[in-house]
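User: Show me a protein chain along with its predicted structure.
Assistant: Here is one chain, sequence first, then structure tokens.
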Amino acid sequence: MKLSPRLLSFAALASLALAVGVFAANPVPDSVKQGGFAIGPQAYSFNRFTAFEAVEKAAAAGAKCIEFYPGQKLSKEKPDSKLHHTMNDEDFAALQAKLKQHDVTAVNYGVVGGKDEAEWRKIFEFAKKLNLYAITTEDVKNIDVIEKLVKEFDIKVGYHEHAKRPLDRSYQLWDPNYVAQLVKDRDPRIGACADTGHWQTSGLKPVDCLKILKGRIISSHLKDREAIGEKKPDIVYGTGVSDIAGCLAELKAQGFDGNISVEYENKWEDNVPDIKTCIEFVKNWGEKNK
């Protein structure tokens, strides 16, 4: 039977809606966005403190979201408990209460890996329970397992990049071209966590790397540094050579809708003022470039 143009149009729309539904992973809520971006700290910025203190510091920096990492001590009151995908229900409930108290939303978790499918399932179950947008990993060997669970749980996964390792040529995640090839034939919900600081240490320009990964950027650890090709400490956005404004423009041009984490590996004991300034930079840039 030949369909009329009108029925064909409806069929095309239905097909498009189905495709969008298949690949529409749990989105970052608009309520946590500032200047159009979900900008907040990576809790690793506060690794001298507990996860509860990280939530407090995120709020003090003006953030509405946070990315957690595995293994951080949970609280001063429970120093033997850790924020982890294996944490018990009581500790998990306390974490949720802390987030609610400070109006901060958890959006991502990593860098994390699993030794096998059983552990990866626990990671995804934890992420689903916390209503996360994505998981950050460097676990290449288990990518088949990860893809299977991405489809099952509808949670995105971003491959993080540490800097080039001259004594370990087997480590290739530093190269955005490698990451692009790694994920290109995988489920669209698998992509990159763009760490601009580690790219710079490897001698790469962040904007160029973002362009290589166009359409596959799940999240970002956005950093400004004072040099490319050297390992330097993080500095306030807009004061280095990373071209943070250019990075934001490129992410916006790509339709990026993930989370940006300020992973500030500097001034460990007192970096809230600098992180707050970084968040304000992103917020102000976004408001000026709507």
